Amino acid sequence: MTELTAHGFAYTDGDVDTNTSSNPSLNAMIQQRYSRRATLRSGAAAASAAVFGGAILAGCDSANADGDFFPVIVSVGSSGATSSGRVVTLTGNATDAGTITSSWTQISGPTVTLTGASSATATFIAPAVSGPTNLQFEYRATDNAGQTSVGTTTVAISPAALGFTSLAKNKNDIVTVPAGYTVTVLTRLGDPIASGAPAYKNDGTDTDFASRIGDHGDALYWYGLSASGARDDKSSTRGLLVQNHENLNVQYLHPNGPTSTGGVRPEAEAIKEIEAHGVSVTEIVEGANRAWTYVQNSTFNRRITPNTPMVINGPVRGSAMLRTPFSSDGTAGRGTINNCANGHSGWGTNLTCEENWAGYFRRSGDDALRTPREVTGLRRYGVTSSTGSYGWSTVVAADATDTRFRRWDARATAGGTAATDWRNEPNQFGWVVEIDPYDKTKAPRKRTALGRLGHEGAWLGNLASGKKVAVYLGDDSRGEYFYKFVSDAAWNPADAQAADRLAIGDKYLDAGTLHVAKFNADGTGVWVPLVFGSVPNRPATGSDAEYVFADQADILVHPRLAGDAVGATRMDRPEWTATNPVNGDIYLTLTNNNASVRPLGGTDAANPRHYNDPKGASNQYGNPNGHILRLRENASDPAATGFVWDIYLFGADSADADSDVNLSGLTASNDFSSPDGLWFSRPTNPGGQVKPLLWIQTDDGALTDRTNNQMLVAIPGTVGDGGSVTITNRGSGGATATQTTRRGAPATDATLKRFLVGPVGCEITGVDSTPDGRALFVGIQHPGEDGTAAAPDSSWPATQATGTAPAGTRPRSSVVVITKNDGGVVGL
């Protein structure tokens, strides 16, 4: 017997002419099938499509199996296109008289994760690509007889692009984001993060901030958790949000603002203010319909305040300069304060940075009781206040043994010593503090090898096996320096997932060399090591005598003095740093400067501008709008002693600035002032790959007559993509001076857009995302900072939903989560 198969129909040449029924002949059946297929192809059964933002894009036909008399039919059309980071929907529509099972598989191109692959509709995020790239997918449909038909479609992917319309500047009392995005308020000042803690009334009567979210939320970072509660760096649905709490809107913390009697602060008010500082660790989760919430009773939740026990680590541990009545051997301390920018390690820990700590101490009138060296050091760091911020040292504690308030009085006493008074307490602050967010039993460690500064941030360079670890450090004050720490130990990738994370911190952050930057006019620079024996004496300055360094601990307690001694470049408020995860370029925000620190004749190539940017009737001479500098280490080596640099962007008000001020060609769609927060998208999603997105946040006073503070997103180039330019600076009275600098490529609407505008009186500070880039966390700090308890000038976040709130509603610093409505990567 010979068997013939025609289009899946079995035929035999056995007995013939034995069937006398009137059923159709073979030829008639075949003709019927082809007629039916043509009808299906031309009608409503469009079988497969790739959908991008609502547009349907078809693929190519490859149906190849028919099954039986009424087979599953699959037909597809032409190909479609999108760009990296956007959502693609593949839709199959098979037709058959019986049951259909469907599935999608990828058959070529960069691998993507298909969601809903075992159905007729599947989605994926378009991957990062450096040039036009095709992805091909197969749709397979099977009928109830087990016969399968297959169709394919091709999706063309283009490199990432900023996928939104730039926002206009505004002064609204809400967080504004582009169309297609949603803002959700996640955590707020005073929210309880301990089981049983009462809800926040927001009327000034709330207490126990050791169990609540603190004030002035600043830098933040996401640490992933698995379903079982273990560290999971890939998790995008459950994690810990670690946030700094820098300072206070003190007028809203009490019923009628802070009080005192005869210059003495009440204990209850002071402890509330102290505990509202520090760091919070809060579990957050994504729920149904991508709704984000925090978990009040999570066992991971934690507050770290100025009263939390700390361990001193590194070269200054045990130094006489750190001895206090609390720690007679100088190895321990209490708390962290004025936590501003941050960093994160490559081994799962958080680096929080103590910035403007000096002003909290009462210290004046005791010069005669100190050595000249001590006085020089205290003056250089600004520990000179006669009261101390908030007057905590004036509190008369109910318990005479309670030193939580007395410690803020750093005056030396007649006949006293470091063991009997608090003369050395200021030396306990100004450090980078490492925290294990996953283990609340571990005391945070102050990493003294990284130096004592007004730390704005501590950001690691890209880690590479066998290379040393570099940490970049801004010292946030006008005229201060930019630093780099280089570890003695070379990076071992096996340390990334070590169980004892703080022990890994000991390895990489306790032994190494601190450097300070010198910027040359030709676009090069050098890192000067601050090593005892090679740092000269700091010359006498003003009323300060020559400073002679005693040892390496002295240099690390006083790196500002060491920077003076080696002639480091004075910068326009060096603040946040960020590392491009692809090419390793280091970015540094230089927020602003004024004429007293940066006069007309006092510019240099790295800080090149002096001009006036009027605000109303007031003049603002100096560099009120700031700039963003970037550098690349020689040979891309984190331990390099030399680098090249340029100025990536110059802040400017496009409505006022001339071409010698608006050097980056900013327009009304992307102009900004006073860059502060800075962050690159994570390399675990398309936003942080190939050409990563750079997020820029502002802390502006110069442009706030035109707009509330804002956040922009950029696709930057590389160091050296511009060239040399000579500008004319202008001072008061018509005086001019020229300055040559290195300028990056001008901004365009394709490379820089305004993504967010905050509420009234706020600063935008703190930004991170989930690893998949589909949820962006942003800190909104001190809304309504110029109001009073009786007359708040913002009511945000209560205004977020409708734009209004009941009169007298007090504002609260908060974290918002921003998601793209179609589920794509935020910003793309």
UniProtKB/TrEMBL annotation:
InterPro entries: Ig-like_fold, PhoX, TAT_signal. PROSITE patterns: TAT (PS51318). Residues 602-621, 782-813 are annotated as: Disordered. Residues 797-809 have a biased composition (Low complexity). Pfam families: K319L-like_PKD (PF22352), PhoX (PF05787). PANTHER family: DUF839 DOMAIN-CONTAINING PROTEIN, SLR8030 PROTEIN. This is PhoX family phosphatase. It comes from Sphingomonas suaedae.
